[in-house]
Amino acid sequence: MRQRLVIGLTGNIATGKSEVGRILAGLGAHVIDADRVAHDAIRPGEPPFDAVVCAFGPGIVAPNGTIDRAKLGAIVFRDRAALQRLEAIVHPTVTAEVDRQIAQVREGVVVVEAIKLIETGMHRPYDELWVVTAPRAVQIARLVETRGLSGEEAALRVDAQSPQEAKAAQADRIIENHGDFEQLHRKVEAAWAQLLEEPVTIRAARRGDLGDAAGIAAVLNSVIAERRYTAMAGHWTAEAEQAYLDGLRRRSEVFVAEAAGGIVGLQSIAPFVSYPSNMDHVAEFGTFILADYRGRGIGHGLAEASLRFTRTHGYEKVVVFVLADNPVGLAYYRSLGFEERGTLQRQTKIDGVYHDEVILEMHL
Ligand SMILES: CC(C)(COP(=O)(O)OP(=O)(O)OC[C@H]1O[C@@H](n2cnc3c(N)ncnc32)[C@H](O)[C@@H]1OP(=O)(O)O)[C@@H](O)C(=O)NCCC(=O)NCCS
């Protein structure tokens, strides 16, 4: 593991975000509650205090000299512009304080928990973004139960927030919290274990070993099931993959990435065409990584091994075909130095729909 790993943790109201924060703290994470930092930022004597009073009037100051949060809330939750003004005052102080607290942790996992983590862009420099989600009905039921709201009031609060789906779409890890506490605990523990797992190792797949074949088939089937990255359909069995591995010729190879004892990604290298022989200098790659393991450098690691292999096996050029509507796949190959050579219109079919494919190549 790296010396310090920073996770941004967010989730809409009553999804269980704070519960996840507490579980992570119990597992050994250093948890920073950015919402609490925001509360503290407007205490008398802190620089934002005067700015907030100046913006919203002395009427928001309680008799004891502190800001009356209920009064301030009544203003800003009815008026979008007012809320933006408040956030513009408080946010820079919160970010600076959270950054200061992160910097104090030298080693281990830091979790920054905040309701508006994504909206404020605070999560961007962090290593991972975790989003806790819950079905709307569960959110409402929890609010009714724990805060004594009516069903209608609860629904209003739930619907006032930006949609969970948009947040989840940006997440590295989604914690779905629709069950009981025990289930939530197990999910968070599993995610934590994955985070701390041993480093990824990359090696060539063993031929004549069903273990690798089963692991490779599982990765392929998982990416096929996503129905958006490959025109491959159907289901790979371990036996079919074993036959493929056993049939590999001298100039073909499959490199696999292993984490936590299992195969999580692979890259295949094969001659672009085996006939005619004037194409012997061209290799083709295929890359498949389990969704949970993307964006962690595994693709780069595999390519290092594959490019070494191509260079030592007489290839001079590598080509790949990537679906035109797969921006991450295109970005990946461009990051390796591949260049686009053109688009093949309606080249491949997924679920009966034609897709364009981009051809990219790299000279070795
Ligand atoms: C495409 C894929 C192989 C990339 O592997 P990966 O392990 O996630 O990639 P890495 O973490 O090594 O990142 C390598 C580069 O890919 C690009 N990349 C990776 N994740 C990205 C994302 N979410 N958004 C944009 N670019 C991304 C970046 O350019 C990155 O380089 P950088 O770290 O210098 O910015 C992987 O996402 C995957 O298996 N996708 C599904 C199958 C597929 O699309 N295969 C490729 C087409 S056949």
Descriptive overview:
- The chain is α/β, with parallel strands linked by helices.
- It has two domains: 4-195, Rossmann fold; 201-363, Gcn5-related N-acetyltransferase (GNAT) (Aminopeptidase), CATH 3.40.630.30.
- It has helices spanning 17-27, 34-41, 47-56, 69-76, 80-104, 136-147, 151-159, 164-170, 181-195, 210-225, 238-247, 298-312, 327-336; strands at residues 4-11, 30-33, 108-113, 128-133, 173-176, 201-204, 253-259, 262-271, 282-289, 317-323, 339-350, 353-363.
- The chain has a seven-stranded mixed beta sheet with strand order 6-7-8-9-10-12-11. A five-stranded parallel beta sheet has the order 2-3-1-4-5, with helices on both faces.
- Strand 11 and strand 12 form a beta hairpin.
- Helix 2 (34-41) crosses helix 5.
- The mean pLDDT is 92.
- Coenzyme A is lined by residues 223, 229, 286-289, 294-300, 322, 326, 328-329, 331-332, 335.
Topology:
Layout: E1 4-11, H1 17-27, E2 30-33, H2 34-41, H3 47-56, H4 69-76, H5 80-104, E3 108-113, E4 128-133, H6 136-147, H7 151-159, H8 164-170, E5 173-176, H9 181-195, E6 201-204, H10 210-225, H11 238-247, E7 253-259, E8 262-271, E9 282-289, H12 298-312, E10 317-323, H13 327-336, E11 339-350, E12 353-363
Parallel strand pairs: 1-3, 1-4, 2-3, 4-5, 9-10
Antiparallel strand pairs: 6-7, 7-8, 8-9, 10-12, 11-12
Helix pairs in contact: 1-9, 2-5, 3-5, 6-7, 10-11
